[in-house]
Amino acid sequence: MTSLLRTARCVRPAFAARPASRITPIALRRRYASAATAAVADSGEQPYFPDEPREPIIQTSIPGPESKKAIERLGKVFDTRSLNMMADYQRSYGNYIADLDGNVLLDVYAQIASIPVGYNNASLQLAATSPEMASALINRPALGNFPQHDWAEILETGILSVAPKGLDQVFTGQSGSDANELAYKAAFMWKRQQQRGGADVDFSAEDISSAMNNQSPGAPDLSILSFTSAFHGRLFGSLSTTRSKPIHKLDIPAFDWPQAPFPALKYPLDQFAAENAAEEQRCLDETERLIKEWHAPPAAIIVEPVQSEGGDNHASPSFFRGLRALTKKHDILFIVDEVQTGVGATGKFWAHEHWNLTSPPDMVTFSKKAQTAGYYFGNNELRPNKPYRQFNTWMGDPARAILFRAIIQEIERLNLVESTAQTGDYLYNGLARLAEQYPQDIQNLRGRGQGTFIAWDSHRRDDVLRKGKGVGINIGGSGERAVRLRPMLIFQRFHADLLLERLERVFKS
User: Is Transferase among the key words of this record (predicted)?
Assistant: First the structure.
């Protein structure tokens, strides 16, 4: 494996961290000065963060003594049982996350796929400290009633500038769960509008009275179809379509909505082409049966391009094209949940671009790396026929939309989507070679051609995640035994070398 690496050569850290000090990002960058540049001098790459550390730094066990004190204090006022590590974001930089004890880890989990262009990115800091941002923060508008005068411009130059092809409108929201729930509401209103005969047909007296009693027809017997192992959020409606882990759903009342099987592919894909094609057809056939026979007819199908929380499960473009054909055939909506896959991580700005659909999805939901949330749509019939039907106080957040605009500009300035595609190929090939050496630790490697959206299964997954921190990498899991990579868009080949070298240390242990 050593021959695969160009940059991870047992070099000493470029600096010694001070665990007790509070260092501003500017001072931190000075201490890191030229470290990353030196580390990639022979790689041919220009680092996006030239002042990054040369490599991870481990000063103490994780959590160390200072982190333990902070965790104990936080635990008295906040639930810390799901805590991964106590981070110091003032000292985190680029691809590296720092803690309170002088440890600096290469972060390939990135706040569960949510940091797009690096910690303490200078371009984002400029946007965050602009007068425009200050106004949006301290005068936060209730956008449905009192939109700010430049809201259209903020949307057009930001969120809508990267809208999926064919979707030229947006409804903004607060989170990924919220985005999906809003999309479900839009789907239900669209379907009932169809059933009544169009947007101009008013509600009946029975519609109005029964809705107040949570009964049909005002509260219609409709559903959203999702898939086994899916994750679409933890709010009430979105939770009814989440099927990834029981702990998310226990004790919460849920709608009786259908779940179709998601393909369980066999790897390597080229060795099981016939079996996988049959498996995908089986899932499509069962999806169609549920559409036709479920007692509460689906108004929409929702699907993730990669089932992230549920185990990083993939399917082929042909499968998703088949789903789109089914929604067209049965006159229901096709919602693509790009909360985790969107904004460049798969080597395309939107993961569904890999599918080559003949017609776009009806709605695409987004959040995470966008740092804001909502759903894109193109059909005017998806606008409710009356005001206040799709409404809440904030209806999104101009401050977060401004930040997403800055993120988009940074992605375009550095050509980060193409870079992520190239880095992903390099990383996948390195992992494939590791899998040959450590077949028990890297099983069912998946994500080829999907940027850095890569995962594999491990019989000792939790041990790999724990030991990863000990060698300086912050890495995540999903499902029961998947190790998933979710690096930032500024992750480059020399970072991949560092990751591969440290993974090999873990596998050897």
Answer: yes
